[in-house]
From TrEMBL:
<feature type="domain" description="Deacetylase sirtuin-type">
    <location>
        <begin position="1"/>
        <end position="243"/>
    </location>
</feature>
<feature type="binding site">
    <location>
        <position position="120"/>
    </location>
    <ligand>
        <name>NAD(+)</name>
    </ligand>
</feature>
<feature type="binding site">
    <location>
        <position position="34"/>
    </location>
    <ligand>
        <name>NAD(+)</name>
    </ligand>
</feature>
<dbReference type="InterPro" id="IPR003000">
    <property type="entry name" value="Sirtuin"/>
</dbReference>
<feature type="binding site">
    <location>
        <position position="102"/>
    </location>
    <ligand>
        <name>NAD(+)</name>
    </ligand>
</feature>
<feature type="binding site">
    <location>
        <position position="104"/>
    </location>
    <ligand>
        <name>NAD(+)</name>
    </ligand>
</feature>
<comment type="function">
    <text>NAD-dependent protein deacetylase which modulates the activities of several enzymes which are inactive in their acetylated form.</text>
</comment>
<dbReference type="InterPro" id="IPR028628">
    <property type="entry name" value="Sirtuin_class_U"/>
</dbReference>
<keyword id="KW-0808">Transferase</keyword>
<dbReference type="InterPro" id="IPR029035">
    <property type="entry name" value="DHS-like_NAD/FAD-binding_dom"/>
</dbReference>
<feature type="binding site">
    <location>
        <position position="131"/>
    </location>
    <ligand>
        <name>Zn(2+)</name>
    </ligand>
</feature>
<dbReference type="InterPro" id="IPR026591">
    <property type="entry name" value="Sirtuin_cat_small_dom_sf"/>
</dbReference>
<feature type="binding site">
    <location>
        <position position="34"/>
    </location>
    <ligand>
        <name>nicotinamide</name>
    </ligand>
</feature>
<keyword id="KW-0520">NAD</keyword>
<keyword id="KW-0963">Cytoplasm</keyword>
<dbReference type="InterPro" id="IPR026590">
    <property type="entry name" value="Ssirtuin_cat_dom"/>
</dbReference>
<dbReference type="InterPro" id="IPR050134">
    <property type="entry name" value="NAD-dep_sirtuin_deacylases"/>
</dbReference>
Length: 243
């Protein structure tokens, strides 16, 4: 039996599937992988990315933060790709119980997924740091002044709900992710290098015997997986789910 057939069989017989994904899920929507050739870590700014997207830099230099953030981290025109659509279908079938994602683009929800745990937050949610008023991504972009800094009508600075360097992951999201993974009868991991912690460490909580890794490149966890498939995650999932 080949790898794709085995994946189909496991999906058919499973009733409590959890998906854990990273940047590779969104590259097929033309959102660059952070560390890819055209990604976040290949650019020309006065400061390294780790500095610019840190909490302290956001506070001290919001203009430069938002110049980088708008140019490198916002893709408002991006649409869900076959991977997002296949996962939404799998949830609709009652098999997929949760999508746990490291991505901040909101494309899983746009595709129709309901139970999405966003480890690193979302560009789709933004709040005024003074009055806590909520802003959509579109409202954030339209509220940017001539200096490129988005401000609320109360003059407060607007902050995106994304986890910056020097910030901790949301404890509730982490604990719910652990619960879903530890109770899953099948774990599908896709589009992630599994090198970004603490998020990557979550898969260690899986206790079953159907952990599938779908990625275009090798990961440090390949030898611990029960099935490894190299290829396009969109193509692999669509074929397996029958979308």
């Amino acid at each position: 039996m080949n790898e794709q057939s085995l994946l189909k069989d496991w999906i058919n017989e499973s009733r409590n599937i959890v998906f854990f994904g990273g940047a590779g899920v969104s590259t097929e929507s033309r959102i660059p992988d952070f560390r890819g050739v055209d990604g976040l870590y290949h650019q020309e700014y006065r400061y390294p990315p780790e500095t610019i997207i840190s909490r302290s830099f956001y506070r001290s230099n919001p203009g430069e933060f938002y110049r980088f953030y708008k140019n490198k981290m916002l893709f408002p025109e991006a649409k869900p790709n076959p991977a997002h659509i296949a996962l939404a279908k799998l949830e609709e079938m009652g098999k997929l119980k949760a999508v746990i994602t490291q991505n901040i683009d909101g494309l899983h929800q746009a595709a129709g997924s309901k139970n999405v745990l966003e480890l690193h937050g979302s560009v789709r949610r933004n709040h005024c740091t003074r009055c806590m008023k909520f802003f959509t991504l579109e409202e954030l972009l339209s509220s940017m002044g001539e200096d490129g800094i988005p401000r609320c009508s109360c003059s407060g600075l607007i902050k995106p709900d994304v986890v910056l360097y020097e910030e901790s992951l949301d404890e509730d999201v982490l604990s719910r992710s652990v619960a879903y993974i530890s109770h899953a009868d099948m774990l599908i991991v896709g589009g992630t290098s599994l090198t970004v912690y603490p998020a990557a460490g979550l898969i260690d909580y899986y206790r079953g015997n159907k952990m599938v890794l779908i990625n275009k490149t090798v990961t440090p966890m390949d030898d611990k997986a029960d099935l490894v498939i190299s290829g396009s995650i969109g193509e692999v999932l669509c074929d397996a789910v029958g979308v």
